[in-house]
Amino acid sequence: MIPLPVFILLSLVCFCKSDDRLTLVKPLSTGDKLVSSGGVFALGFFSPTNSTANSYIGIWYNNIPERTYVWVANRDIQITSGSAGKLVLTNNSDLTLSDSKGSTLWTTMNNITSGTTGTAVILLDSGNLVVRLPNGTDIWQSFHYPTDTILPNMTLPLSTNDPLYTRLIAWRGPDDPTTSDYSMGGGSSSDLQVIIWNGSRPYWRRSAWDGSLVSALYQSSTSFIISQTIVNRGALFYVTFTVSDGSPSMRIVLHYTGMFKFLTWNSSSSSWEVFIEQPRLSCKRRIKEIQNRHTRQHSKNSKSDELDNENIELPSIFFKDIVTATDNFSDYNVLGKGCFGNVYKGLFGGGKEVAIKRLSKGSGQGADEFRNEVVLIAKLQHRNLVRLLGYCTHEVEKLLVYEYLPNKSLDAFLFGMF
Q1: What is the DSSP letter of 26?
Q2: Contact residues for 376 (Cβ-Cβ < 8 A; gap 6+)
Q3: Which ranges in 300-409 belong to alpha helices (H)?
Q4: How far is CA 401 from CA 69, 282, 322, in A?
């Protein structure tokens, strides 16, 4: 017979053991946490480093010693100091966060009465938190409401008219999960152009999409494969990236500095390593320098339709040569479309392949904007940027000729879409 004290101790051990789900009769309270079945991710209450004033409910890597958050529910409505939080599954199958006063701080909006027991909130090894009905249907998932992080197998809507469209929003600081001015998502000018904004101002844009629906990359130094898939469902586009089995933990994050970083976990050094980032610091400084210099230069120059005084080494290309190269702007050669016009694949004499951006007559981009783009890109030459080869102005036509990249580099692969 087991002595009573030992029996009580064993009961407490079983009671405190981490689980991967919440039910109607099992809420999550301060001090508790969920752990996915494989131990990869955990969900619970936390306070940022060097701060005990407010607390949040979030998801982090459970098997990585450096606490790394990938999702936060109540970013801008925190649980204040001295108040205990509680995360519960309601009778309407909603996940609700409240404080000790009973005030609702955050909630899903499912409002579905399953009518049977068995509905549960489950934390998956992918890092996705789902509300799952007894029949296996997920009626809500955190992957549809990302914060600042993209995880493998997360499907992201690129079309701004998609009901599930959202932007990644960076943390305000290294220990401040509240939303900042930096955001990232699909741009309204094209379903397949991803932009980083600083407030309402575009801060960085991806290069033109080449039309590939599936891309894969083998990284020899780490022996893992990264795959990117573009899915077209009617008029809506989505992107997903996956990694091969056995790969180290990976994540893409919109950093609080406005940088877009692809990171991998190095178990040897016990740290996150930057696989690649955009825009690069040297590139950011160069952009600012050119923009400031061109602003001063433009204020002294009253010309609005010429590039002669801009002191750039860039050839002017005949319009008839561009017409020939694009087969008279054939739809077959369209690489992408946006509110400023179309991008065409072209073939010059000698087999030189190019990408040609043709500004729409109704785009609203006038001579000033066209000159600004030509001057900025012509002077901003960087190995990670698509090179501008020339330009053309012909009556109302304005065109830019870029190099065409059929086999993308690592930078172009990772950031040509994201």
Answers
A1: B
A2: 287, 290, 291, 294
A3: 319-325, 367-379
A4: 42, 25, 9
Give me the long-range contacts of 57-62 (CB less than 8 A, separation at least 24). Answer: 57/28, 57/85, 57/87, 57/97, 57/106, 58/177, 59/123, 59/127, 59/129, 59/142, 61/249, 61/265, 62/35, 62/36
Q: Is 13 left (phi over 0), alpha (psi -120 to 50) or beta?
A: alpha
Q: Which neighbouring-strand residues pair with 274? A: 263
The three-class DSSP label of residue 14 is: helix
- Residue 165 burial (CB count, 10 A): 14
How much of the chain, in percent, has pLDDT values that exceed 90?
31
CA atoms in the 13 A half-sphere facing the CB of 303: 11
Contact between 227 and 216 (Cβ < 8 Å):
yes
The single residue listed with the structure tokens 């010059």 is 348
Please write the tens of the pLDDT for every residue from 340-352: 778 888 888 767 8
pLDDT tens by residue, 207-219: 655 555 665 555 5
CB atoms within 10 A of CB 307: 18
End-to-end Cα distance, the chain? 62
**Residue type at position 113:** T
67-82 burial, b if ≥16 CB within 10 A, otherwise e?
Answer: ebbbbbbbbebbbeee
The torsion angles phi and psi of 9, rounded to 5 degrees, stand at: -65, -45
Burial class (CB within 10 angstroms; exposed 0-12, middle 13-18, buried 19+) of 83: middle
Per the CB < 8 A criterion, the answer to whether 170 and 183 are in contact is: yes
Beta bridge partners of 316: 391
Q: What is the pLDDT of residues 302-359, one digit of tens each?
A: 333 445 545 556 788 888 889 888 888 888 788 877 667 788 888 887 678 888 988 8
Helix axes 367-379 and 281-299, enclosed angle (nearest 10): 140
The CA distance from 381 to 362, in Å, is 29
* Structure tokens given for 319: 């319009």
Contact 111, 92 (CB under 8 A): yes
Residue 285's pLDDT is 56
